[in-house]
Here is the input.
Amino acid sequence: MAVAGRHVLAIQDTSEFNFRTTPQRRRGLGEIGKGVGRGLLLHAMLAVDATTSSCLGLVAGQIWTRRGRVKIAHEKRRAQNKESHRWTATAEQAKRVLAEAAMVTGISDRESDFFDLWATVPGPNFHLIIRSMHDRRLANGESLYAVGERFSWTTTRSVALPEREHKRLARVANLTLRFGNVDLARPKGTLERHLPEAVTLTFIEVIERDPPRGADPVHWRLLTTHDVANAMAAWQIVDWYKMRWIIEQFWRLLKLQGLNLEDSQVETADRLIKLTAIATKAAVVTLQLLQARDGPVPEPVTIAFNGDEIAVLDALNGQLEGATMLQKNPHPNRSMPWATWIIAKLGGWNGYPSSKPPGPITLKHGLQEFFATLRGWSLKNVRIP
Here is the structure.
């Protein structure tokens, strides 16, 4: 197993896929978003190595389209009957899939900040880091943010922020941090009376006091089940949370960089769901290949390819290498960078070190060629009567 013995960050998120429809051609798709859009929703969880940030693969996920509007009010439904239950269900599935990991830390954004998740999911080797959604009531009757205001600011550190599509350019921010323990109270009106009356977490607040002109300042309020004894440990939580941007890369690959899933003209929702499942797998492999292209720590090829696929990669490598050293695959045999070189060559990259590194579209074309070759390889010993 790729996760065995590692500290794995299990990063989950949901994204909407808006497919072009008209009143006469809904394609069986339900409503999404706040407008008139129609499409699918994909909830995915990626496994990421907490030390190297390498994507180890897809852990779990759900794909669905809404079948009309729910008429029962949100607060009058049990947790398992709410769409938000996907966060808890996916985390529980991760416990089984990632059982061989040394430790798992689930990471997600504000939509997953609800009491049921905090009360039921964490375990001895399964932690959570979630960005706070709103000001909560604490067990002592005070509010979360009011108590946080009394925590002392500790240290300031320069943090590299990745680019966010249409929202933020990549830049370095000077962030200041404070932290402390809090006891979240069970919501008064919840139907889940079996849940504990409170859960103890660590609250971490990070703020950018001097943002560049025109830039929105960074302000993160994080909650975690990890023990945080000092500022160094708090910064580690921030660093792990920052790796959530990897799943943003995954969405970009599905929607924009190469796969362009939302441009599909497939006619029915059922077929679009199947297409989305296939594209999800392709996007994860593309992400792994891109990381291998840039990453300092090479992962084994087995995190993305099975035995038959590796055999085909071996055969292709021999065909694609040229006679000179500059035309040879320069990477360790059966490593992910080795596979990236092969897939990129199949996608039209020339392979020279002086050339621009292969991008998502090149790798997409290379994967298409690879899987076409794989299908032919699987038929090589088939005898026609």
Remarks:
- Strands lie at 7-18, 30-31, 38-49, 55-64, 103-108, 126-131, 153-161, 171-185, 198-208, 219-224.
- DSSP finds nine helices and ten strands in the chain.
